[in-house]
Design a protein that fits this description.
Blueprint: E1 12-16, H1 21-32, E2 36-42, H2 49-56, E3 59-63, H3 68-74, E4 80-83, H4 89-105, E5 110-112, H5 129-141, E6 147-148, E7 150-152, E8 155-156, E9 167-168, E10 173-177, E11 184-187, H6 189-200, E12 208-210, E13 214-216, H7 218-229, E14 234-239, H8 241-254, H9 264-276, H10 297-301
Parallel strand pairs: 1-2, 1-4, 2-3, 4-5, 5-6, 7-12, 8-11, 10-14
Antiparallel strand pairs: 9-10, 11-13
Helix pairs in contact: 1-2, 1-6, 3-4, 4-5, 8-9
Length: 305
């Protein structure tokens, strides 16, 4: 039973970034619940995922995100604006501000920003470029009268099989910096999308919702990998957090890639923050929607090579 009385089919949820990996999943779960979904697509976009959105039953609306009046008209009747966009300042700050202003203009009562990350509210500004952009937008969001809910899910667990190489499958090792007992939060993209869809339909959500499919330290990751692969994984400490900070500075200097959303040094910044333990999610809201069966790390790691 959800903590609200309105039926899902009475709700129109508007999604920006619906053609992305997370947005597609959110749309899927919303439509499964019987909700109406209006996907805002950049005018002239040739993204192949648009066909999948249309086939799923979503309403596709092409918009010029720079046209305030047209954008506000596209948001009319929405119960919640969900932003699943990805990018740098021109997207996370500038585009989301345009979505926010249009939502206010269209009297959309609720806004879910594109956060989906560790708890940046506990971090010092300047330690992570991408999280600083989210903090900046949310400060603007909090100055409006719209009801906002940020969903924080730690790291996407899916990244452990590729972009976040903590688990070294060929070496049967889990590498880490700092303390092997530091707890970190991991949630699959699918579970995050499912939770987000339910939150979008829930008019009673608080300002922040925090979830973790599994909480794990380096030792726990090794155990999960051992179960997933049927062979013993150990842990290997590369060095302290000071060494990781030096590596980040070197990578950013040698390969700045300022226009890339996720250059190597950005991923290292994210990992550094997690390994400090500062952005640990607490309290967790995993039980808010009991129908979600959270995916354990051992299932995710079965796909690793």
């Amino acid at each position: 039973m959800y903590p609200y009385s309105e039926k899902a089919e009475n709700k129109l949820i508007i999604i920006a970034g619906a053609s992305g990996h997370l947005g597609l999943r959110i749309t899927h779960h919303l439509i499964q619940k019987g909700a109406k979904v209006r996907a805002l697509i950049r005018k002239g976009s040739k993204n192949p995922s648009i066909a999948a959105l249309r086939n799923s039953g979503a309403e596709i609306v092409e918009v010029d995100f720079n046209n305030h009046l047209r954008l506000a008209a596209a948001l009319a009747g929405g119960a919640c604006m969900v932003s699943a966009v990805s990018g740098l300042r021109e997207v996370i700050v500038d585009l989301q501000i345009r979505l926010l202003n249009a939502s206010v203009e269209a009297s959309v009562p609720r806004f879910i920003p594109s956060d989906f990350c560790i708890d940046y509210t506990k971090l010092r500004p300047g330690t992570n470029r991408n999280l600083d952009l989210r903090r900046e937008f949310n400060e603007r969001l909090d100055r409006t009268n719209i009801r906002a809910t940020s969903i924080l899910n730690g790291m996407f667990a899916d990244l452990l099989t590729g972009q976040a190489p903590l688990v070294q499958f060929g070496l049967t090792k889990v590498i880490y910096w700092g303390n092997a007992d530091t707890e970190m939060d991991f949630t699959t993209m699918e579970d995050t999308a499912h939770f987000t869809a339910l939150a979008a339909l829930d008019a009673t959500t608080p300002r922040y919702l925090r979830v973790a499919g599994e909480v794990a330290n380096a030792r726990d990751l090794a155990k999960a990998a051992s179960l997933a692969k049927g062979e013993e994984f150990g842990i290997f400490r590369i060095g302290g957090l000071g060494l990781l900070a030096f590596m980040i500075k070197a990578a950013r200097t040698l390969f700045p890639q300022k226009k890339e959303v996720f250059p190597a040094w950005q991923g290292m910044q994210y990992l550094y923050d997690m390994l400090t333990g500062l952005p640990k999610l607490h309290p967790l809201d995993n039980h808010r929607y009991p129908e979600i069966n959270w995916t354990p790390l051992r299932e995710v790691l079965r796909e690793g090579k």
